[in-house]
């Protein structure tokens, strides 16, 4: 009886806990890279995809301010209080620790009171813009796993841009725009993450949600990572398998949450009114008390540990991989091309371990049949099959049937061993696949995210619209590369300002902005049908102007009364000509 009561209480507790917990404490099942299992052949290693645990990444970053001397206190200056913008007796002095506000205070531990914060110089050089770039660098590729949270000690800025870099700060892309008036500041319609969907989750938006001017009770700005995850994993992130499946098969989605650097561009401080109070410029400045960035080292699902040594983050690679991001195979483990691990199939994923090179095995693999040269493949012109090999000094190409080496995921049962390159490649890949192991899709096909790699339907035809796409190829998620003015996954839709006419063509006219003038009518958005007396793209010109005959007796552009008056004037000038010298 007691046991049954205990089990009932335990089940109730599990149910209540699952309801109360808004987000899962542990993401997925990728915290182990390998485990020993028992098989008919004895104890062997079972490899699986793995990744480091999510953590606070601000402990490992380097911060840089631009301009470098923008921090307040050198020379000392006074500024206005946060709660009362007209009480301007606060002091910032870099030489006094109690009055200094250096950049590292954006990342220290925040207790209850008082808050420590970085602060910029005041807007004493108005109307010159008060702008600051705060760059956060990790010198390592990281994957974001939670919202980026910026807590301002001043009012939240009127205009700000959050940017990201994937190449260590060489190039930058916007992550999100923030403004009190998006249309005025960035020429963008205001949106929030709630306005997005699975299909538009990568859209760069401008939000007015976090820019409410000088308000002491509203200090926080978010970049919503989890809300974007929720489009795939559900509102409480319960279905992480769906999210991992999308991240695994959609490179653009995976890259969206991957960074090497972040940059906060503060473009205009909190003003709170329409006009800047030039008599109290000490009211205007930036102050940030805390920045939170949670994520993990990107190790391509080949490591669970990322170490911080000599001010540098490095993955401790498993699966016979190496490199800062476990991005290549170790020496003597290059029996097949390096590949990142895969989240699929859930829950263990696929390790895609690097296997020993053939030369490192000790004895050459056994082959059922050895071909003396390329011409034995019964091809009239061997150069058409392998021009690189035909031109090199390859001594033999061997057809391998060894199970370990001939891995083609069921899309071919024949492999070739290239002696010079010391590698094995699949021959005659079927099911629209290609690659050394038939692991890629042919041009014009893309990976079916719902199919396993050994499925006959793993590659789906792109079906790019030939009139709207640049070519018939698509990316890994099935999106085609569209011509100018064209959009949609298959390039069969037109962007605003364009209409479909054997492909998307720019609108010459419409009934909204590009009106036909002088009584012309718009025909299919491609041309204006003009009255007889007018011409031009929008019927904006008199036809006689092009012929240069508007002043002649053609009658175009002149009234009958004007023509008679002109004739009378000519007659009078003719009779008066003898009096003119």
What would the keywords be for this entry?
Jelly Rolls, EGF-like domain, 9 helices, flat, four-stranded antiparallel beta sheet, Laminin, developmental protein, disordered C terminus, LMN_ATRN_NET-like_EGF, alpha+beta
Characterize the structure shown.
The structure is a single chain. Helix 3 crosses helix 4. Among the domains are: 243 residues, Jelly Rolls (Sandwich); 47 residues, no CATH class; 38 residues, Laminin (Ribbon), CATH 2.10.25; 28 residues, Laminin. Strands 3, 4, 8, 10, 11, 12, 14 and 16 form an eight-stranded mixed β-sheet that branches. The chain has nine helices and 38 strands. The radius of gyration is 35 Å and the shape is flat. Helix content is 14%, strand content 26%. It is of the alpha+beta class. It is a lipid-anchor; GPI-anchor. It comes from Sapajus apella (Brown-capped capuchin). Pfam families: EGF_laminin, EGF_LMN_ATRN, Laminin_N. One of its GO terms (cellular component) is plasma membrane. Keywords: Cell membrane, Developmental protein, Differentiation, Disulfide bond, EGF-like domain, Glycoprotein, GPI-anchor, Laminin EGF-like domain, Lipoprotein, Membrane, Neurogenesis, Repeat, Signal.
**Oligomerization state:** single chain
| Relevant CATH superfamily of the domain at 55-297 | Galactose-binding domain-like
Low-confidence stretches: 13-27, 213-217, 359-404, 553-581
CATH class of the domain at 55-297: Mainly Beta
Keywords: Cell membrane, Developmental protein, Differentiation, Disulfide bond, EGF-like domain, Glycoprotein, GPI-anchor, Laminin EGF-like domain, Lipoprotein, Membrane, Neurogenesis, Repeat, Signal
Function: Involved in controlling patterning and neuronal circuit formation at the laminar, cellular, subcellular and synaptic levels. Promotes neurite outgrowth of both axons and dendrites.
Domain Laminin EGF-like: 462-511
GO biological process, one term: tissue development
């Amino acid at each position: 009886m007691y046991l049954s009561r205990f089990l009932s209480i335990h089940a109730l507790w599990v149910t209540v806990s699952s309801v109360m917990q808004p987000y899962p404490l542990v993401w997925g099942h990728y915290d182990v890279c390998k485990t020993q299992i028992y098989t008919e052949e004895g104890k062997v290693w079972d490899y699986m995809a793995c990744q480091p645990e999510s953590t606070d990444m601000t402990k490992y970053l380097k911060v840089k301010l631009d301009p470098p001397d923008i921090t307040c206190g050198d020379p000392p200056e006074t500024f206005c209080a946060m709660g009362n913008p007209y009480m301007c007796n606060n002091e910032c002095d870099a030489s006094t620790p109690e009055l200094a506000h250096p950049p590292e205070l954006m990342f220290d531990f925040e207790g209850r009171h008082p808050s420590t914060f970085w602060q910029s110089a005041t807007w004493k050089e108005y109307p010159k813009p008060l702008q600051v770039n705060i760059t956060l660098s990790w010198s390592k590729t990281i994957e974001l796993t939670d919202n980026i949270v910026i807590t301002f000690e001043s009012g939240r800025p009127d205009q700000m841009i959050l940017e990201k870099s994937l190449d260590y700060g060489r190039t930058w892309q916007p992550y999100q725009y923030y403004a009190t008036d998006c249309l005025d500041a960035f020429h963008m319609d205001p949106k929030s993450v709630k306005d997005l969907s699975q299909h538009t989750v990568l859209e760069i938006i401008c939000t007015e949600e976090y820019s409410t001017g000088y308000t002491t009770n509203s200090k926080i700005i978010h970049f919503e990572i989890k809300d974007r995850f929720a489009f795939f994993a559900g509102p409480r992130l319960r279905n992480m398998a769906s999210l991992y499946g999308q991240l695994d098969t959609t490179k653009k989605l995976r890259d969206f949450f991957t960074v090497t650097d972040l940059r906060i561009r503060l473009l205009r401080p909190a003003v709170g009114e329409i006009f800047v109070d030039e008599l109290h410029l000490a009211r205007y400045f930036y102050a940030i008390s805390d920045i939170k960035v949670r994520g993990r080292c990107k190790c391509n699902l080949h490591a669970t540990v990322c170490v911080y040594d000599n001010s540098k983050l490095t993955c401790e690679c498993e699966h016979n991989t190496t490199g800062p991001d476990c991005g290549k195979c170790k020496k003597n483990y290059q029996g097949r091309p390096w590949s990142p691990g895969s989240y699929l199939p859930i829950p263990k994923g696929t390790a895609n371990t690097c296997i020993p090179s053939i030369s490192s095995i000790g004895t050459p693999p056994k082959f059922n049949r050895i071909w003396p040269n390329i011409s034995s493949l019964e091809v009239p012109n061997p150069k058409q099959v392998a021009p690189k090999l035909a031109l090199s000094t390859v001594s033999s190409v061997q057809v391998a049937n060894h199970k370990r080496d001939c891995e083609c995921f069921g899309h071919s049962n024949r492999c070739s061993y290239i002696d010079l390159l010391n590698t094995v490649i699949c021959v005659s890949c079927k099911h629209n696949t290609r690659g050394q192991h038939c692991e890629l899709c042919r041009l014009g096909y893309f990976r079916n995210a719902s199919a396993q790699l050994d499925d006959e339907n793993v590659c789906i035809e792109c079906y790019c619209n030939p009139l709207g796409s640049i070519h018939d190829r698509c990316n890994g998620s099935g999106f085609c590369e569209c011509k100018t003015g064209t959009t949609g996954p298959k390039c069969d839709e037109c962007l605003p300002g364009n209409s479909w006419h054997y492909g998307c063509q720019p609108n010459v006219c419409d009934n909204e902005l590009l009106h036909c003038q002088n009584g012309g009518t718009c025909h299919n958005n491609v041309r204006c049908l003009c009255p007889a007396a007018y011409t031009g793209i929008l019927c904006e010109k008199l036809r006689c102007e092009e012929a240069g005959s508007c002043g002649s007796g053609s009658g175009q552009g002149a009234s009958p009364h004007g023509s008679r008056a002109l004739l009378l004037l000519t007659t009078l000038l003719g009779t008066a000509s003898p009096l003119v010298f």
